[in-house]
What we know:
15% strand, Rossmann fold, 178 residues, six-stranded parallel sheet
Amino acid sequence: xxxxxxxxxxxxxxxxxxxxxxxxxxxxxxxxxxxxxxxxxxxxxxxxxxxxxxxxxxxxxxxxxxxxxxxxxxxxxxxxxxxxxxxxxxxxxxxxxxxxxxxxxxxxxxxxxxxxxxxxxxxxxxxxxxxxxxxxxxxxxxxxxxxxxxxxxxxxxxxxxxxxxxxxxxxxxxxxxx
Length: 178
């Protein structure tokens, strides 16, 4: 089972990326988590470049192929100015016409210092419009997530790791039930 992990943060020492690494560590046996690292290399979305007769940019084609091969997704995103980071929204915009997210189970994890309710609501709305299946029961709001990390950026909070483990088990079960 292939799960694609996408961090909505471009920061080198991103807490969101740390949460995704931890999710991969606690994923059930048989679940392979692949971290998508190309968010910063995607061109700005332009519908003129996404017409049926055009060839998408290589970075866009790579993302589409990865998502097409995925059984599910886990997205960890900060909340910037009560919204979705532009780089993550840009990636999602490139997926609208190609429909790689159709009926794919998706878990949202949030490492916002403000609680993250707004970004999760916005992402849920966008992903559902794209026919993705956001698993609200497995999604995790993580205020003050940086406090759950050690100096090397590893999640060390056992209670939180238990929540991540349960989230990944729910995601795997949703994939299996598809």
